[in-house]
Amino acid sequence: MNIKANDFMATVSKNGDEAAILLQGEINSLADEEMTGAYEDAVAGSPARVVLDFNKVDYINSTGIALIVGLLAKARMANIHLTAVGLSDHYREIFTITRLSDFIDIQ
Amino acid sequence: MTTLRGFWRKNFGREAVEETSVDSLPVDNTAQIAGPELDITADDPLLPYLQNAGGVVDLEQLALDSPAVGELRRAGVTMIVPLVSQGELIGMINLGSRLSEQAYSTEDRKLLGDLAAQAAPALRVAQLVEQQKAEAAERERIEQELRVASLIQHTLLPKDVPAIPGWTVSAYYQPARQVGGDFYDFIHFDDGHIGFIVADVTDKGIPAALVMATTRSILHSAAERLVDPGAVLQRTNDVLYPQIPPKMFVTCFYALLDPESGYVRFANAGHDVPYCYTGSGIVELRARGMPLGLMPGMEYEEMEATLKPGEHVLLYSDGLVEAHNEAYEMFGFPRLQKLMGEQPQGQLLTDFLLQQLAEFTGADWEQEDDVTLVTFHCLAGAEAPQDEDSGRWREIADFTIDSSPGNERQAMEQVAETAADLLIDDHQLEHLKTAVAEATMNAMEHGNEYDPARPVAIKVLANESAVRVRISDHGEGVKIDRHGEIPDIDAKLAGEQTPRGWGLFLIEKMVDEMSIEQDETQHTIVLTVNIDKADGEQR
What ipTM was predicted for this assembly? Predict the structure, then answer.
């Protein structure tokens, strides 16, 4: 199997009880490890809110959606509020279609 | 007895001749001796003299400046008995000297006069019978020629019109009594293209039919070797020119239609300019070129057009536009153009035009020239079957993607590149991209199991109202279940469903139509986005 190098990157920053994850590149199945790691980092101090910054995301596929659903499930278990910023109109629509927008605050 | 063959012809209004031949057969009681054949010209003064002589003419004493008199004397004729019927000279009895070498007596002359009086009407009747026979034979010859011309023409005209999915083609041909030189033809090519020919040979009857047959076969062989309509006409002209009789030529319009795309390329050798019905009016399909067979080394301008659904083309011959009514007005191009605009349904156009022509010319119209009408009509969405076989789809891209994780983006970008110009807005394009990416991913992962030896085949098709993408894998056995579990975020968050399983759900939401074709060796997901649906928000 020829695995294509994934250019996805997730960078965590914290500000009081809020953590932000700057997502960069493509969110697909190959982003799993990087994204899960970043989430673990972000929630390490039990912030009230985690902001997912999609400004530098150019592609999310259905497995990427599944990753986000996975994060959302974890966040809900930990009672952490998820917020999404920087989504393009198209991905806002996809968040609406999938009803992710019912559980993630989209700004 | 002498007959005046040429003189008869002249007097009976048949062909005009300058010379009159005379068969001289001196009458003898015991034997007929063939005399020399003499020519009497039609303007020889002897003829009016005999017509008015009123009896036997003694040639020896005749003082007339006539070449014929000299000729007759040299032939030994001494006396002429004119045969006159109803004031017309219809023959002569030429007599030589009596065998006894005695002069003709008064009694002889009287006898000859009486004979002439009785023979002339009988000869006249015989002449009329012969003339009628000749005329009947001539009529039969002309009728036979018409039958042959008509037979040639009908043998060469196509028996059927092409059956093209998504199109209706019609052809109408009504020969004039004299059978003109119109012909039409269709050429079927292996790649599905159809050639349309309408042509008109100058002249009528058998000569026109023969030139038509020759031209048709040259056109066919040129069209089989050459693709460009301009080149086909050029080749036809070059081959036809040395073969065609002087002063004859052929006007010809040749169009090559790609039924899949509606794209038409055409060239014209001096034929009446076809019309195209479009949503925004009647367009002339103009291209410059001289008639075939007139001059060697001609070049033919090639033009193009693309027919959209609901549009149609009319090819016709001058028999339609040059038809006259009782007031001797011509049907004409402006009338034809106007009528075409009044009949938006291409399938009904021929009947409509013929009805209009009949109203224009009136019931007693004697058709002056052949009338030929050929139409091809691109069926609109509602008229056409909706499957791809309808032929309305034009393939704009065909490529493969290696089955490797992440390669769906490559598929998505390649489709986006080809479809970008066709879709109205970015919003629609984003929808299509997501659907293509998801379907490609599905094909690579589930169908091809990320096997590099099994690439994903992608085709992009378009028509006037939609873009369609076909994505095929080489999946064996396992079928795509579009009616499986519907992803539900509540169930997923509650751990009752896997977080995954969004693929088909997203695809269905992104496109106007999704269908799946699958058999034992492959699955194909067919995605269709309607171009006219600019309000993507409603999906």
Answer: 0.90
